[in-house]
Amino acid sequence: MELRPLRYFCTVAEHTSFSQAARALFVSQSAISEQIAGLEEEIGVPLIDRSRRTIRLTPHGELFLGEAKKTLAAAARSVEVAQHSFRGEIGSLRIGFFAGCIGANFPRVIRAFRQRFPQVRVVLAEMSPAAQWGALLNGEIDIGFTRSPDPAHAHKLASETVHHDPIFAVLPRAHRLAPGPIDLRDLAQERFVMCERESSPALFDKIAALCAEAGFSPQVANTSTVWSSIAMLVQAGEGIALLPPNLQGLRAPDLALCPLKSQNAFVELIMAWSPAGETAMLNSFRGIVHAARAPQQ
């Protein structure tokens, strides 16, 4: 069943006149009459009582009118939903992030996006940087705030730098080098507590590269996947750490966050997505991130 006969029938019922319906629809009266007659033949039920001078619906036509209006409204809603979806104004957006390294703008970006696109369901998924790369490729998340992907994933993903997270030395407050700033060469004889490479290879590799630039390889005393555990190990005297200062657990009163003198002492926070999953909604979200982006550190 086509929608046009339903639209013609509803207009005739509204105006109780073929001629007035024709003027309202900007079509000929004969075209409307033919469409409605075809509709009645298709469903096998008389909808209009043509035995009177004025147009009246049959009892069956009255019932059909209510359902026809619902059908036309549903069709219009379907078009509206498709158009909203095409413009990225409806649906869901799944965002990956890892705690402590999302930057101060992240909550503001999420709030701004929700305010601008209230019909979009935002799903926030906390996961490690390495886990995000696979989730992006598998379609589990649409966009991720993560570290630079390794070569195995980099060519499959699109990404851009959001900001630079500075890397500080995390020392016991009573350490001889606190509060800094510190030349990395002065840490050559220290024991290091490191993040495990499997969970954050970009940070692990950057720390190793910084130490190599300073002329030594770090003596790794312990590793952990949990930032709070790294802080606890430093507090316990297990060693020192090199970490971005915005990680949870690093503001303990017995810890010192010491800036490094190296100009390369930073790790990138990137926004990554799969080109295969790029949508208008995703691009709208990226636009909000661009607008809220803080100056490079």
What does this structure look like?
With 297 residues, this protein is an alpha/beta fold. It folds into 3 domains: 3-86, Arc Repressor Mutant, subunit A, CATH 1.10.10.10; 91-163 and 269-292, D-Maltodextrin-Binding Protein, domain 2, CATH 3.40.190; 168-264, D-Maltodextrin-Binding Protein, domain 2 (3-Layer(aba) Sandwich), CATH 3.40.190.10. The protein contains 10 helices and 12 strands. It has helices at residues 3-15, 18-25, 29-43, 59-86, 105-116, 129-137, 151-154, 201-213, 227-235, 280-292, and strands spanning 48-49, 56-57, 91-97, 120-126, 143-146, 158-166, 168-172, 191-195, 219-224, 241-243, 255-259, 266-273. α1 (3-15) crosses α3. The chain is rod-shaped, with a radius of gyration of 32 Å.
How would you concisely characterize the structure shown here?
This protein is α/β, with parallel strands linked by helices and 297 residues long. The chain has three domains: 3-86, Winged helix-like DNA-binding domain superfamily/Winged helix DNA-binding domain (Arc Repressor Mutant, subunit A), CATH 1.10.10; 91-163 and 269-292, D-Maltodextrin-Binding Protein, domain 2; 168-264, Periplasmic binding protein-like II (D-Maltodextrin-Binding Protein, domain 2), CATH 3.40.190. It contains ten helices and twelve strands.
- What's the alpha carbon Rg, rounded to whole Å? 32 Å
Shape: rod-shaped
**What is the CATH architecture descriptor of the largest domain?**
3-Layer(aba) Sandwich
CATH class of the largest domain: Alpha Beta
Uncertain ranges:
none
CATH-defined fold name of the largest domain: D-Maltodextrin-Binding Protein, domain 2
CATH superfamily grouping of the largest domain? Periplasmic binding protein-like II
Helix content bin: 40-55%
How many strands in all?
12
How big a fraction of the residues is strand?
A: 15-25%
Task: Please give the alpha-carbon distance between the first and last residues.
Answer: 62 Å
- From the structure provided, what is the oligomeric state, counting identical versus distinct chains? single chain
Q: List the strand order in the largest sheet.
A: 4-3-5-12-6
Number of domains: 3
Category by helix and strand content: alpha/beta
Order of helices and strands: HHHEEHEHEHEHEEEHEHEEEH
